[in-house]
Amino acid sequence: MADHALLIGMTGMLAPVAREIVGESQHATLCARGAAKFSFGEKFLDDKVMKLPLDYTDETHFLDTLRIRGPVDLAITWLHPEAHELRNAIADCVVPGGKIIEVMGSAAGRPDGFADERLDAMKSQLGKTYRQVILGFVLDGGTSRWLHHEEICAGVLTAHRGFQPRTIVGTLDPWEKRP
Ligand SMILES: NC(=O)c1ccc[n+]([C@@H]2O[C@H](COP(=O)([O-])OP(=O)(O)OC[C@H]3O[C@@H](n4cnc5c(N)ncnc54)[C@H](OP(=O)(O)O)[C@@H]3O)[C@@H](O)[C@H]2O)c1
């Protein structure tokens, strides 16, 4: 259970994960451009959440606002850009003993992708648990498909509850068979 969970980019396909985390946290901060309009549809959950309508591409304003909100003990991020400085600054908001979960697209897991770099960077976050979730695809007979939202959410929650630094949801191999 988190005292203060920070959820970034989780009002779309990852909303069911946000719901689960908020349910088991004391309070949470939810960041997305449209955060103000987002609702879990349950007062009990909405009352625990500070919704911040922020654009993470405006890194300075985004981080200044997060810092005002104070430290967190769980941060889950679904960011499209590599944005290493932004990712590191978000990790800095997590207290020692806390956990950082980064969700990333399939290209991050390629040999030239940034997933390995993130694993290395997080070694400097002493005393913090790091979990990385790479979204792959599913081989389906002779064809392939992207993950369903339920599969993505289940993979993120598995990473949260589990002990593996890296979780690949679906597969990244063979890469040329991706949809
Ligand atoms: N490997 C796979 O199978 C895989 C991987 C990735 C995606 N997908 C598919 O692709 C679809 C689209 O993915 P998606 O990431 O666009 O959808 P999404 O997860 O449903 O939405 C993106 C999230 O990030 C927030 N966001 C986006 N840009 C932002 C910004 N500049 N600042 C702050 N927050 C921002 C969005 O809220 P706001 O818009 O309110 O800011 C939302 O919370 C998914 O629905 C999924 O089906 C599949």
Structural features, described:
The structure is a single chain. By secondary structure, the chain is α/β, with parallel strands linked by helices. The protein contains six helices and nine strands. The chain has one domain: NAD(P)-binding Rossmann-like Domain (Rossmann fold, 3-Layer(aba) Sandwich), CATH 3.40.50. The strands form two sheets. The chain has a seven-stranded parallel beta sheet with strand order 3-2-1-4-5-6-9, with helices on both faces. The longest helix has 13 residues, at 149-161. The chain is globular, with a radius of gyration of 16 Å. The structure holds NADP nicotinamide-adenine-dinucleotide phosphate. NADP nicotinamide-adenine-dinucleotide phosphate (NAP) is lined by residues 9-14, 32-34, 55-57, 78, 105-106, 135-137, 146-147, 149.
Keywords:
globular; 6 helices; 179 residues; two-stranded antiparallel ribbon; single chain; 9 strands; alpha/beta; 7-stranded parallel β-sheet; binds NADP nicotinamide-adenine-dinucleotide phosphate; Rossmann fold
* Percentage beta strand: 25-35%
Parts with pLDDT < 50 across at least 5 consecutive residues: none
Overall pLDDT metric: 96
CATH superfamily: NAD(P)-binding Rossmann-like Domain
Helix content: 25-40%
Q: Any idea what the shape is?
A: globular
CATH architecture: 3-Layer(aba) Sandwich
End-to-end distance, in Å?
37 Å
Instruction: Tell me the name of the CATH class.
Output: Alpha Beta
Number of structural domains: 1
**Major β-sheet strand ordering:** 3-2-1-4-5-6-9
Number of strands: 9
Bound molecules: NADP nicotinamide-adenine-dinucleotide phosphate
The radius of gyration computed from the alpha-carbon positions, rounded to a whole number of angstroms, is 16 Å
Element-level helix/strand string: EHEHEHEHEHEEEHE
Query: Helix tally?
Result: 6
Major beta-sheet overview: 7 strands, parallel
Return the CATH topology.
Rossmann fold
Q: SS-based structural class?
A: alpha/beta
